[in-house]
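cache lookup: miss for this entity combination. No prior model stored, computing from scratch. Input as submitted by user K.M.:
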Amino acid sequence: MNELSGWGRYPKIKTKELTPQSESELLEILRHSESYIPRGNGRSYGDSAINKNLTVTMTHINRFLQWNQESGELVAESGVLIADIIDTFLPRGWFPYVTPGTKFVTLGGAIACDVHGKNHHKDGSFGNFVNWIEIFNNNNEVVRCSSDENSELFHWTIGGMGLTGVIIRCSIQLKKVESGWIKQQTVVNNNLNETLQSFYEHKKATYSVAWIDCLAKGKSFGRSILMLGEHAQKSEVEAKPANYPKRKNKKITFPFDAPSFLLNNFTVSAFNKLYFNLNKNKQSCYVDWDTYFYPLDSIGDWNRMYGKNGFFQFQCVLPRELSEQGYTKILSTIQSKSSGTFLAVLKDFGSGNGHLSFPKEGLTLALDFKASQKNIEVGKELTDIVKSLGGSFYLAKDAIMNSSQFNNDFDKEEFSKHRNVAIKSEQSIRIEL
Amino acid sequence: MSKNKTILIIGAKSDIAVAVAHKFASEGYNLQLAARNSLKLDAVVSDLKIKYEINVSNYELDILEYETFADFIDSLGCLPDIALCAVGILGNQTDDEKSFSNSTLVMRTNYEGPSLLLGEIANRFETRGSGSIIGISSVAGDRGRASNYIYGSAKSGFTAFLSGLRNRINKSGVNVLTVSPGFVYTSMTKNLDLPNLLTSQPSEIASKIFNSKKKNSVMRPFPWNLIMLIIRLIPEQLFIRIKL
């Protein structure tokens, strides 16, 4: 038995963990287990990849199986990391179509959570670029599904949090790029209304995401910096030392759990002010892919910043027409309860994908909270606000929701046909999914 | 054919062997992978080919069937520049000490097979006048201990074989490297409770092997060189009273 947690290090749960080395070893384990959950690289924040009885870690099932340099189709085992894909294929001119904010997620995890990136408003989520998936289904067989073959299983698996079966292999489509550089442009927004408006004005940008100062009050309430990005063409970056720069080495690793007094309202507020002022004068510039997409990956174990009790993330999506009203209420609640966060990120979503996928038309907000009792209460209050406005929550981040708060307006009867009943996570039990 | 160098890896399903394959492939080597049930290597082979854009061929080989060794070497597309043997089974000391057949299997797999095969390849290298022989042995072979002396004695035999081979062949342009890695996190050791500070990842061992591939020596990574030096120096009368 050892103790496992998600990236937020809250909650910590004792479980038996097995890490099979090959597909045959994996199938042997699965056929003899009555209750388990597959786990990728442990980058979901809460308890969605932990089962008290057995957690099957997939990180060693991680081989590339087929590659087509002409079409950009990759067939791989599900434990392959996005980082492996970039290391191998970016020098050949290919990049993942959709990537979350860390490159240390597995393909299986990316499909199960149907992750999104800064281009969701334009390209949709990870599931849009999955050609097919092979899963160990509820009949203990390995079956292939795609939008043409076993299509219902496919659409319940994308965003299905691993509950339809263990994803073993998949085929994904990569994107052709001329360089590993991103042309970045920043737009300063002085209040919430400007922030929301600027997403609309820049909807043609390939990548867009806003960092929002959630502690600014008065006429600066909801101020933000919108960061836009485009893949640079080869001709734009000829002066750079490498057309396809390599991944950066970790500069710093958080060596210990930060003492909890370091994170207080004063330091968080100072950080937010500093960050806003540092960025507001930035002009358009070219940044390498690693810095642009994965700024936090360069700080090893950054999750220790929140101290030994860990933290939790809160990410919701609100319908576009209710966004201003809803986010005003949410930010005001945070300010009045003094639970400011370092990382508050706002992003607009295009239309959704799988039956259980998180992204849907509207605006999404992601917040970090230190896992204190007070903050957990605030998190629950925010959850109720979102629920009352018809919004929903990102299960890959959730650690605190209860079953009545979970937005369960999906076809339960249809889902149960595809659900692998042996697969349960502490989260799926908590929210009765 | 490309002008790249080639390494033959025997016992290619082991975790150290796979790590060695990745390391050498990343340095541009072509790979010849030999193992029992080599079909199980299919995913590893495709992964290596795609990642490093090199040639990889795999061969079926049972380390206990020495009658097949000459044909096996003839069947390789080319005589490799380096031959590395990572074959090994740990066995289970308490069961094996009561069973002839179990003990024989551990002894033959860890000593007889690897020695005979590397010996034959070394003869071919000697004729050619170049090549590197690398044997993965074990610190368990440095002194017999109650907890694993069947495995240890076989590894001891393998270490002695490589030592003699090196002594014989080093003037003909062939080098022999013995690697005794100490604890490594692998499938073979997954049920053992290993001390973190003394245990390496397979990839660390692979990098050390790559850097030492041309050496005529016994490689025991720090701090195992010191630990085993002390263990060998303990007088027998004292040693028999220590539980190791």
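stored under new cache key. The first strand of chain A starts at residue 2 and ends at 4.
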